[in-house]
Amino acid sequence: EPDRIYVGGGSELITLTDGHVAIRPAKEPAGHRGTVDSMLISLAEHAQDRSVAVILNGLGSDGTAGVSATKQYGGLSIAESLNGEADAAEQGAASPAGIVDLLLPLEQIPSQIALYIRGLETVGAPEAAGEISEQVASLLTQIAGTLRTVTGNDFHGYKRNTFLRRVQRRMQVVQAPSIADYASRLKKDRDEVHHLFQDLLIGVTQFFRDAKEFDALEKELPKLFEGKGPNDHFRVWVLGCATGEEAYSIAILLSEYLETVDNGPTVQIFATDLDARALGAARAGRYASGISEHVTPERLRRWFVKEGDTYRVVKELREMCIFSPHNLIKDAPFSRIDLLSCRNLLIYLNSDLQNRVIPIFHFSLRPGGLLFLGASENVTRHQKLFAPVDRKNRLFRRLETPTKVLPEFPLVARQPRELAAEKAAAPPRPGGLVATIGRRAEQIADRYAPAYVIIDTQHEVLHFSGRTGKFLEPAAGAASLNLFNLVHRDLRLDLRAALHQATEERARVEHDRIPVRENGKSGLVNLIIEPILDGPDLTALIVLFQEGGPIIESTSPAGRKGASDEHVERLESELRLTKERLQATIEELESTNEELKSSNEEYQSINEELQSSNEELETSKEELQSVNEELQTVNAELDHRVRDLARANSDLRNLLESTQIATIFLDNDLRVRSFTPAATEIFHLLETDIGRPIDHLGTRVSYPELSDDVHKVLTKLGTAEREVKSREGSHYIARVHPYRSVDNFIAGAVLTFLDVTSTVRAEAALRESEARLRLLLSELQHRVRNTLG
After folding, report:
1. What tens digit of pLDDT does each residue of 66-106 get?
2. Could you tell me where the beta strands, DSSP code E, fall in 473-535?
3. Helices marked H in 660-721
4. 95 near 61, Cβ under 8 Å?
5. Which of 152, 186, 154, 153 is nearest to 170 (CA)?
6. pLDDT for 565-611, tens place per residue?
7. Among the listed residues 282, 283, 288, 286, the one whose alpha carbon sits nearest the alpha carbon of residue 312
8. Backbone angles phi, psi at 589, to 5 degrees
9. What is the pTM of this model?
10. Residue among 420, 480, 427 nearest 455 (CA)
């Protein structure tokens, strides 16, 4: 009914079912019922975007799963604030105050709920939605810039449609009338920037999402575990883990497989996400009962503990997973990973970021490692890095590449203006240089229409035209694009001289009528060298080959008449001698060139080795950076667990001190492990007595059977109880219980002394009063008899 407040009893669970409040008794013990989460989850499922969850102070971590469900269904969540945003920081990421939409003082909560309800009644008109979308599209860059300035996380590379939907939702929560007003508010309100950031990170995930893909992954596990023994580690990296369902699903698969093998390796799962608050919920490992739709009953019984209407992941899986904040775009990746799961994260990145992220995955994986992507993601643009294992189910295996692929990180999303400036400032890449030179060369070649090649300043060919077969003869041996190794033998000397002249003078050079023999026929070739300049710099040269026709021998009669036969023979003899000397010179020059070429190849080999060493050093640097990132992750997780342990120790200490019960914890050798302050009133205990046998300590009570009782309890695992008395006359009930660890292992005994002095004295006084009363009654009866007699 409206205008009513319903309060449940201490041992009842409240849920919403078919529009009614349903109440049932809780079966679980207190602290394991999930009362708040069960109620809020049923509210979110029932009312969806019209659900409003208000979390008041004093609940601790209760309500975290319920608030997550409210946000998932589009509802509003508010937490009571005493110290502003400091509440969330103090309570930690696992508290509901850390993930709610709004953190407000108590007196402001009703008005905010009323604003939200009015917004639900007005938002959603087609014309309003269209107007908002158009305005958001024009101001997205400004909003993303504000996010990057305040949070340090760049959303320029995220897909626009997703960004639009999240901004519109925050506008509805804060009742911003227009996108321009909301953008202005972001510049002034840092808290709202963080709220928008959290909404952008709300992940949609579930256990064993796309079950067929997980079945395919399960079939590949034997190959991944090949060659791994008990001293090895199997490392998994789950990116964008959100509230942990994906990580725990993989942990279940790996744990089930390890149960089928002997001496399996140690499994370590790094689960990372940008949202530190969602990671807190993942560490808690508590989920709504709806997971039963995606998890089989056998797995629910084996890997979950039911707490009210929620399920909590068993401790074994929680300890296997390390949850830590990590930004894929700017943080160093993990290395030596066997299985990398990045499902439904790439779909939120634009194509530029996707192309730069895939090499990072290749770097992180071990040789033969497996990449597990979402249903809408692929690596088709990086076929040299990954080979499909099961393309339909998005499983890809890492390939070894001839050269090491060094990933580019940090990955900063570049804006169009930045890209234009980068292209203008950067030197032309080989591919772009070839295209530019090719277009300019075509303009020059149009004047001649011959065969031509384009070479760089090192005489390496960048571009071939058609019909160059008559002028180029590739030499036998290793493939080379050096023009001198490709050009016809008869053209090499003249070509070398012409190239040298053109390079020095930066001018056009022609060598005409060069005789060339091919297949027993002689012909003439004209060489034309023209440099291609980019301002004062020489960027390339174009070499054109023109056919000059066949060699025509002179048959003029006048020539024969002007010289005698002897003179002709002498000239022919000198000509032959000159040709022989020239041929010898050419051969010596070619021999020298071959030696120089050999030396050059050696230098190139040395240079490649140095380059390879440099790449190895860079790889080692990246691996060290990755190891450092892993250490930071482990350290953060350990720090979180230390804080939880310190909080639990504080709670336990306060509990023991508040009960005023003298308690001593003993190990199996009857040595003191710890004690409460009240125990010093019975035993002569100091902090330095920890580790001493209990028999060596002085006591103020008479309890000679203490050692026998402790040994009996440790042997029979029962309980011993005695009433003992101190020298001062105080009375105590001494009880001895076995000390059971979390793993149900007997690790000693617990000795407690309950002060019952007041009770004993009260009983004694009662007995004394009873005796006096009986005496009085007896005397009264005697007097009555005397009177009547």
Report:
1. 787 777 677 788 888 776 544 444 444 446 676 777 788 88
2. 509-518, 521-534
3. 706-716
4. yes
5. 186
6. 555 666 766 787 677 678 778 877 887 888 888 788 888 878 888 88
7. 286
8. -65, -40
9. 0.47
10. 480
